[in-house]
Structures are given as C-alpha cells and as structure tokens.
C-alpha cells in the first residue's frame, strides 16, 4: 500500500493478522479469547521462532490480559473513534454514527441516504475497539447479504481477509471454521439462529450486531430469535438496527424496539431539515382510474357469488358484518379466528366442519375479489383456475363452486378469453419474446391502459429531451405489482413497445403456477443487467422493494395500493437518489383508493406520534455503553483507502425461458 494512507487497524494490526492461522472453534460458549489463543499457538507451532515473533506474541498477550478487565475492549484503539472523509461528510450521518456507538439505536432514514454508510462506520470502530471480538451484519436475503459486504468494504476498507459471507449454501462445518477465523460476518438471520442453537457461533465474542430491514423484527421472525439467543450468553454487545421506516403502526414500532432491545430511535423523513440538502425531489402523483363497464359487469356477477357463500355464515351468526360488497378477506379471517376461539355451544361436530369449509371458500373468493378490483380479470382467472384444476388442493371449494351456476358462467366466460394464455405463462414465452404482432394484447383492467400511457410517454419525452439537450443518459423505469400473474401480464403488454421499452420481470425464488421463481443468482444477474442498461424497465413483485442497489431509477410506478405504509416507502426509495425522481401510484376507483388514503394517513400519524412525543414508546433501559468508564473516545476524521473489492466467483449468466424475459435488442 505504498503511497496510500492506511487505516489505523491495518497499521498496527497487520503483523498480528499475518501470524494468524485458521483454527477451528470447539463451541459457541467459549470465552472470547479462545480463538485468538488457538491462532497464536498455531502460529508458534508452524513458524520458525524469531525475536520479532516472540516480541509480537508477548505484546499481543499483554494487551489481551489487560483487555480482559474491559470485556475485550482495547484501550489504545479505544482512545479514538474513526470517521471516514473519503466520502463527503454529512452532519446527520456523523451525529447518528456517534449516537449508535454508545447506545442500541434504530436508524430510520429514507432509502438512499446512507444507512449502510452509518453501519459501516459503527462496525469498523467496534472491529478496532474489540480486536478479538466479532462484528455481525444480518440482512433478510442472500442477494442483500452479498451486496452489503461489498458496500461496507467500499466505505471503511476492513480487510477482505477478515470478512466472510455466510448463507444457507455454506455447509455447517465450514461455517464453524469461518466463525473462528473471521471477524466480520455477513449473513441471513436464519443462519445465525441455526449456528447459535448448534453452538457453532461464539456468542460471547459478538460485540456488534447490525440488523438490516429492521421493521421485519416482529413476532417470531429470525431477527427476534437471534437476539433472544444471544442474551442467553451475554448482554455485552451493541445493536444497530436499520430501516427506511420504523413500522406500519405504533404497535409494530414498539414491537421492533422491544424485540431488538432498542434504547434510542433516530427518525428522519424526506422533509427533515438535516436531510433536505442531500435528497432530491420525489414527485408523487396519484392517478385514480374508473373500473369501466366490462369490469363493473364482472364485479356485479362476482358479488352475487359472494352473497351466496357469505350469507350462509351470516345466517349462522359467525360472520357479523352484513355489507357483503365491502367485506375484506382480512375481516373474514378475523371472524374465522373468533369462531375457533369461541365456538357456539349449538355448533358441534359435523356442523363445525361445514362452517370451517364455508370460511375457507369465502376467504378464497374474497381474495379473488381483491384481485379483480386491483389487478383485473386475467389475475382473477388464473387464481380461480388454480382452484378448479386442483393445483391449490381445494377439493371441497372446487366441488361447491362447480355446483354454483353463476360461478360457472363467470368462470367459462373468463376461460374463453384467457385459457390460451395459461400454457404460455406457465412454460413457454418464446412466442411472446418474439413479439407476436398478430395476437392483440387484452387489457384486463383499465389500469393497464393508464400504466402503458404513463410509461410510453415517459420514454418519449425523455428521448426527445435527450436529442434536444444532449445531456441526459439512459432512463430507467421500475413498476411494482404485488402478484406474479400481474407482473407477467404487465411485462407482456410492454413487449409490444420494443425496442423503446426493454422489459424484464423480477420475482422471488418460490415458483408458482404461472411463473417460475428466480434463484438468488438470477436475481443478482437481473439487477446487474438493469443497472448496466441491458433493460430499461423492470417489473417487480415485493422482492424488489427492499435494499437491493438497482441503480438510478427516474420513474417508479406502483400498480397497486398497500395497506402498510412500509411498502410504499420502500418502493419510493428506489428513485430520487442522484437526481429528481417521479413516483406514480395507479389506483382503481373505490376500495383501492380508500386503502391508499388510509395508508398515507397511518404513515403521517406514526411520524407525528414519534417526533412529537417519544414518551409514547418504551425504550430498552439496559443498553450497554460498551466503552469502559473513564474512556471517552475522541472523534478522528480520516481519509480511508482500500484496495479493489474481489467478489466471489461470478455466477454464470443463467436465463430460463419459463421466467426470464429476454430482450435481444437490449443485450
């Protein structure tokens, strides 16, 4: 590294690193220095003794003995905390980093404003302060784990030889070795849970735990299990939780705080004064689309079918709400749960089973009703098709629906329109990829027309501006829809507009009837192609909402409304990072519009409640300081240099005709 400034730990810690072997650890409950002792023994056994080596071991042993009194804290390194100047210094990031060093903190920042940067700073300082400790970064998915290890390296330059990535594909015995030989670990929470329960993870060594997408820490999610397991061994570790939003409501926010032992919250919205200088404007437009005559006609028929099955539950007094057109799937699930907890003494044996069956049919039918209103006739047909062809395993529902004349008329009508698409969606999109000009696309919801209009106009105006001003590069569009059938339908619609629009789908790893899932390798490949300009339009399910670095996106379109404000905040974070962004929310008139308005109201109420009166939340009072009494690390700003990050061996460019749209012109 001649001619380049080195980090403090690289300077005084490099000799120790060179002397270190790669031993195995016997259990996760060993005292923190067990692995270090093994490394020094291995070094002594494997290398010829020299004066330098003897001195090095003696100095290291002396420092280790002194640090035992302070839980492994190195007083020489702990005199300072390092903040990087190789990125522009932002006051809010500096302040939050300082806070997070000394208290368990939940950091809520809009996407793109440096949560990972703050995490890298905190991790690096704990890595320095506790030379024999472990620093752990947890992310909910494998692609996020892969992304974050590189992002943290680019900020603080922790040597790659000290870091490791662990996922489900890493074998258990290999992970045990990694826990001993590496100091900074990036992994999914389920791997952490497994290794803690097996004793492979040296729990007492962990000094800093970073939790990405922390709003997921509800109920028995793996994040919660990790913290519960860790506190069985030690309370001496820092927690830093990261999220674009604290939760969907105040109850959820409190759960996250309780489950992750949070002592303080750093909450900033797009409108926060300290954030405004660094964020680009995001224009949010709400477009409300009438259902149209065709859809209204289908809806009326469907409501008649709902009345047939819901009325039976209403008559038996197990479903209290009688406004059938405005019932929701969630309300029926709640009614079923209530029936199970407090069944009427008059309902016993066979009758109880009949009611359970009626609830199951109603829940499925109301799910279809929501699909019809939000996504359109095609999504409804594919859902009903799964019931009627037996793939959903709902034999009783199939038999009951087959006997309903209104249902069969509707089903046969939808089948006459969409049956030819089932085979294409399931197995072979070669005809679609070639852009079959002879087969006219069927718009199964008026929202599709509006979506097409918005996207086509965006590319036209962008290209016109490009020609006249010659200062813009490529533009990218990202479209979100919650259901895979809808994602497929939207992508097929835009294939009509090649080569101006080069479209690609992006879904999770689980496979469904109409679309096979993407492996994590394929997900990363799609993200890379989109970021590099191979595609300019990405149609994604919720898998594209969280965390992944997809590059600059100028237009985000939400094709459906979400009850939880978290989902919309995550989607909005995909744009406005480096230049002005635009978000368009396309809503069906009626229920979907009301759902969106309620979601926005919930978001405002959460931020207002937390910002205005933090006493409404109960914070963890036992957050450890980690730094021994009498030591107050001083801020030291430093230009950090690092080498070139060497990723794992790149995966092959895998493309599957069943799920990946291939745009030849975009390659």
UniProtKB/TrEMBL annotation:
Cellular compartments annotated: Nucleus
Top-level lineage group: Eukaryota
Gene3D superfamilies noted in UniProt: hef helicase domain, P-loop containing nucleotide triphosphate hydrolases
Leader peptide range in chain numbering: none
The keyword Transmembrane is annotated on this UniProt entry: no
GO molecular function: 3'-5' DNA helicase activity; ATP binding; four-way junction DNA binding; four-way junction helicase activity; hydrolase activity; RNA helicase activity
Pfam families registered for this protein in UniProt: DEAD, Helicase_C
Broad class of where this protein is predominantly found: nucleus
Assembly behavior: Component of the Fanconi anemia (FA) core complex, which consists of CENPS, CENPX, FANCA, FANCB, FANCC, FANCE, FANCF, FANCG, FANCL, FANCM, FAAP24 and FAAP100. The FA core complex associates with Bloom syndrome (BLM) complex, which consists of at least BLM, DNA topoisomerase 3-alpha/TOP3A, RMI1/BLAP75, RPA1/RPA70 and RPA2/RPA32. This supercomplex between FA and BLM complexes has been called BRAFT. Forms a discrete complex with CENPS and CENPX, called FANCM-MHF; this interaction stimulates DNA binding and replication fork remodeling by FANCM and stabilizes the binding partners.
Function: DNA-dependent ATPase component of the Fanconi anemia (FA) core complex. Required for the normal activation of the FA pathway, leading to monoubiquitination of the FANCI-FANCD2 complex in response to DNA damage, cellular resistance to DNA cross-linking drugs, and prevention of chromosomal breakage. In complex with CENPS and CENPX, binds double-stranded DNA (dsDNA), fork-structured DNA (fsDNA) and Holliday junction substrates. Its ATP-dependent DNA branch migration activity can process branched DNA structures such as a movable replication fork.
Name by which UniProt lists this protein: RNA helicase
Source organism: Spermophilus dauricus
